[in-house]
Amino acid sequence: MSDLTLIVHRGSHQIGGTCIELSRDGARIVLDCGLPLSGIENDDRAPGSDSPTLPVPGLFGEGPPVRGIFLSHAHPDHSGLIQKTLPSISVYSSRLCFKMMLAASIFANLPGVDKAREKPMKPGKPETIGPFRVTASPVDHSVPGACAFVIEAAGKRILYTGDLRFHGRKPGMRRAILDAGRERRFDLVITEGTSLSRPPTEESLSELDLEEKGVAMVRERTGLVVANFSPLNLDRLVSFLRISKKTGRTFVTDAYGAYVLMLAKSEDVRVPDPCRSRDIRILIPDGFWESRSGRAVRAHRSRMESGSIGFSEILDHPERFLVLWRPSMLGGLFGESLPKGTLCLRSLWKGYLETDAERRLAADFAAGGVEQRHLHASGHASREGLVRFLKELDARSVLVVHSERPEALGQEFGNLILAGDGIPITI
Q: Is residue 185 within 8 Å of residue 172, measured between CB atoms?
């Protein structure tokens, strides 16, 4: 029986940009195809069209064929290079992942997947591609539709976690993976390790902690409150919707957030209909329906407008609303800054707030009487949660990717494998 070979093309010692190849008998599949975080900005803005590809034969150009690309989730550090891959390669993921990528392509100019390439996977139902048998298992992450993959080939069994956490609104999702590991022990777990380079003193909130803290912050305010987070973060959207209800405010989303809710609801996710809910209003700026984004979702115009609100109503009664907001909205409805007395809750990774543009924005806010506070729950497993999960799995070997310190689990796991970008590993 021939060997199974693994190559981490990128991600062995960095967060983001993940791309992993598995091969056997000349048949090859790829797990994720992402941009490094250095190529991605806050505010869901698109990476540049000159984003570099990777030297993976047959993925972006000539070379032995790649049988399929398996995307763990819709974030661009895992999917951002998908449009540069050869159009003949099928792309496998959950239906909800494809829909989130569609929303991001419409509203944030991020890469989507051509419909002809999409191969939607059902949880627990394996797909066979050459010698590979691949099964998707939903995981809790900061974007809906995220999956781990169980890959079976050459008598070996591998788990690729993608990005996951255990402190969101769906922590029970890990049970299916643990059950799969008990059914037959994994030979290798390829796990994300984002949190391994974080200082141990860094605050780690659960999504429920965030909701509780958010209620306390908003309750003490008498003016407008805005929340800055990616509309793709459905758990966060639900958290702020609940914060709004508990503090007697109406949650206001833009068309992007409304569309994400509509797509999620179409896949039977338990979220409110933004066009019908009494707790949600949709803020649609003048000229939106003539924009690229507006034209793409024009079929939903009457529904969205039935739940819409004007910006003047928000300004007349700012104490009644909590508004989904992003820096790109400045210069439009919100003018050059937010109204004086506004509380701006920045609900995203602190690294996104350390750019020169963000420092200028913070200075402008301070000068204009806008208070900015950080309120975030990570989309990634804590070190402690990850160790517990891996010990429960009890795989024969562990390989950490998506981390600046993959060696950090060496004390807990004597079976830890250290990879290097582009270096083949025989499993």
A: no
